[in-house]
Specification:
There is one protein chain. Helix content is 18%, strand content 40%. The chain has 145 residues and is α+β, with helices and mostly antiparallel strands. It has one domain (2-73, 97-143): Pnp Oxidase, Chain A, CATH 2.30.110. Strands 1, 2, 3, 4, 5 and 6 form a six-stranded antiparallel beta sheet that branches. The longest helix has 13 residues, at 51-63. Pathway: Cofactor metabolism; pyridoxal 5'-phosphate salvage; pyridoxal 5'-phosphate from pyridoxamine 5'-phosphate: step 1/1; Cofactor metabolism; pyridoxal 5'-phosphate salvage; pyridoxal 5'-phosphate from pyridoxine 5'-phosphate: step 1/1. Keywords: Flavoprotein, FMN, Oxidoreductase. Its cofactor is FMN. This is pyridoxal 5'-phosphate synthase. Its EC number is 1.4.3.5.
Length: 145
């Protein structure tokens, strides 16, 4: 699983609510390897009723730097910039306080990994299927690049 911190007020939250499937891709230039991960995205915001998920959200909040946490007190992302406070005025945040409402944790849970090695001309697809509660069985298949 991949954890992503984001702002609940951003457009991507509404997009994910309409379609919980996503992809993440990495390409490593030195090794000529590409990883494409496909999976589902779970949104954990302040309104979530699952205590374990809220615990994960809080842990992610406190793992973030104070400077990063301050971003969630800024004006809503993607809206026109309007001066609502004195630019010299610092936004205050108690470092011991839990997550603010705008803080959201996304959990990306891959169910397929497409691995491509351009140097060796090798490609593998790893696919998962459920294997008990919160467990997955992964299978691989070598395919043409």
């Amino acid at each position: 699983m991949i954890q992503i911190n984001t702002d609940c007020r951003s457009v991507k939250i509404e997009e994910i609510q309409h379609c919980r499937f996503g992809e993440v891709c990495w390409y490593f230039t030195e090794s000529w390897e590409q990883f494409r991960l496909k999976g589902t995205i779970d949104i954990i915001d302040a309104t979530n009723s699952d205590a374990l998920k809220l615990q994960k959200r809080e842990k992610a909040w406190f793992a973030s730097s104070l400077k990063s946490r301050l971003q969630y007190l800024a004006p809503t992302p993607s809206l026109p910039a309007i001066a609502i406070h004195d630019p010299g005025e610092e936004i205050q945040l108690d470092p011991s306080e839990g997550p603010v409402d705008a803080f959201c944790l996304l959990i990306f849970d891959p169910d397929q990994v497409d691995y491509l090695n351009l140097r060796s001309n090798e490609r593998l697809i790893f696919t998962s299927k459920p294997n008990g509660p919160s467990c997955k069985l992964w299978m691989s298949q070598k395919i043409n690049p």
